[in-house]
Design goal:
Elements lengths: L6 H15 L4 H8 L3 H13 L5 E4 L4 E4 L24 H19 L9 H9 L9 H7 L15 H10 L1 E9 L4 E15 L2 E8 L4 E6 L3 E10 L5 H8 L14 E7 L4 H4 L9 E4 L5 E7 L3 H9 L4 E5 L1 H26 L1
Antiparallel strand pairs: 1-2, 3-4, 3-7, 4-5, 5-6, 8-10, 8-11, 9-10
Length: about 350
C-alpha cells in the first residue's frame, strides 16, 4: 500500500484522528493514511520518541490515545507535548527567506562590492535549509516569487566614507545641498547611524552647526572630508526615540504631529486594510465595507500623494487643514487636465 501523503502530512493526520476520536485503532489509522503497517509503526514511534507525544496503546479498547497530563486540569485528552513540524512554510518565513535570497543575488552580481565573492557559499548554505520533503530548491525557485519594491541603483560617491565614519566613530566635514531650500551649506557632523528608506540612504547625525540631531540624505552630500575628531556620544535609545518616527510622511518632531482621519470606501478598503502607513495607525471598519484610517503625520507631502493616489475612493475627514490641502491639490490636477483638453480641442 503506497500513501499519497508526505511524512509530515501523516503526522498531522495521526494527531488530528486521535484528538477528534479520543481513541483510534491501528487499522483505522492505516485506512485513513493509506500507508503500510511498518510505515505507520515508524510514524507512531517517531511521534513518541522524537516529538515527545504522549501516545498510549490500550489493549482493552484496542486503540491509541493521548495520555492525560495530571498537571493540567482538563477533561479533554491532551495533544502532543512538542509541536509537530509544520507541513509547509509559513507566509512570513517564506517571504523573508525568498527576499534574502534575492538580496544575496543582488550583492553577488555587483562584482565591485566587498562581499560579492562571499555570496555563493552563503547562498548555498541558505538553500541547504530547504526541506527536500516539502519542495526541491529548483522547484522553490520556479514556484515561489516575491515581488518587492523595485531597487534603483543611485550613484553615491561619498557613501563609503560616510559608512567608514559611522563604523569608526569619526566626524565628517560635509558640503550639503538642502533640496527644499535649494542652498548648500558647510557642516561638521557626528554620523550616528545609516538608514535606508524608500530607496534612499540617510545618515542620522549630530550637527555641530545646528547643535542638534539632524538627518541628511547621502545623495545630497556634495563633498565630504574625514575629521580627526571623534564623534560626540549620543545614546542609541535617544537616537531611536528621535529619528524612528521621522521618516516619510511622519518627519518632524513628536510635538508637531497631527492625526489624519481618512475614510476609504468599500472598493479600496480591502487593499488598504493590509497596508501599514504608520506603526501607530488605527483602522475602524464600517458595516458598508468602508474603513476609517487614522494616521499620525507631520509633513504632508508623502501623505498627500497617498491620499490623492486613491482618487475618489478616499476622503479626509480631519483635520480641516489637510482636507483643504487635498482639495486644492485635486483642483490643481483637474485644471491641468482641463488646460490640456482645451488645447487639444483648439
Amino acid at each position: 500500500m503506497r500513501s499519497t501523503m508526505t511524512f509530515l502530512m501523516r503526522l498531522h493526520r495521526i494527531d488530528q484522528l486521535i484528538q477528534e476520536a479520543g481513541i483510534v485503532s491501528f487499522e483505522k489509522m492505516q485506512q485513513e493514511l493509506q500507508c503500510s503497517s511498518p510505515t505507520l509503526k515508524r510514524d507512531l514511534r517517531y511521534m513518541r520518541e522524537e516529538l515527545g507525544a504522549p501516545i498510549v496503546y490500550s489493549y482493552t479498547q484496542n486503540g491509541y490515545y493521548y495520555a492525560q497530563d495530571s498537571k493540567i486540569a482538563s477533561n479533554k485528552l491532551q495533544s502532543v507535548s512538542a509541536p509537530i513540524p509544520a507541513s509547509w512554510y509559513g507566509a512570513d518565513e517564506l517571504y523573508v527567506f525568498m527576499s534574502v535570497l534575492q538580496m544575496l543575488d543582488r550583492i553577488q552580481a555587483d562584482k565591485s562590492g566587498l562581499l560579492s565573492g562571499d555570496m555563493r557559499p552563503l547562498r548555498a548554505r541558505l538553500l541547504s535549509l530547504v526541506r527536500s520533503d516539502m519542495i526541491t530548491t529548483r522547484e522553490l525557485a520556479k514556484r515561489v516569487k516575491v515581488i518587492g519594491d523595485e531597487y534603483k541603483h543611485v550613484n553615491l560617491p561619498y557613501f563609503p566614507l560616510v559608512g567608514y565614519a559611522v563604523s569608526h566613530r569619526r566626524r565628517l566635514r560635509i558640503t550639503y545641498f538642502a533640496q527644499g531650500r535649494g542652498v548648500e551649506s558647510l557642516r561638521e557632523i557626528s554620523p550616528l547611524r545609516l538608514v535606508h528608506y524608500k530607496n534612499r540612504w540617510y545618515v542620522d547625525a549630530w550637527c555641530h552647526q545646528s547643535d542638534g540631531l539632524r538627518k541628511f540624505a547621502v545623495e545630497n552630500i556634495r563633498s565630504a572630508e574625514l575629521s580627526k575628531k571623534k564623534c560626540c556620544s549620543v545614546a542609541m535609545r535617544t537616537i531611536e526615540d528621535y529619528f524612528d518616527s521621522t521618516y516619510g510622511i511622519f518627519s518632524a518632531d513628536q510635538q508637531e504631529r497631527a492625526t489624519a482621519k481618512i475614510r476609504i470606501d468599500a472598493t479600496m478598503a480591502p487593499y488598504v486594510r493590509n497596508e501599514i502607513w504608520h506603526r501607530e495607525q488605527t483602522m475602524t471598519s464600517a458595516e458598508d465595507g468602508s474603513i476609517v484610517l487614522e494616521v499620525p503625520y507631520a509633513v504632508e507631502t508623502e501623505l498627500l500623494s497617498r491620499i490623492l493616489g486613491l482618487g475618489v475612493h478616499a476622503r479626509v475627514l480631519a483635520p480641516a487643514a489637510l482636507a483643504e490641502r487635498v482639495a486644492k491639490e485635486a483642483a490643481a490636477v483637474l485644471r491641468q487636465y482641463d488646460a490640456s483638453l482645451s488645447e487639444a480641442e483648439a
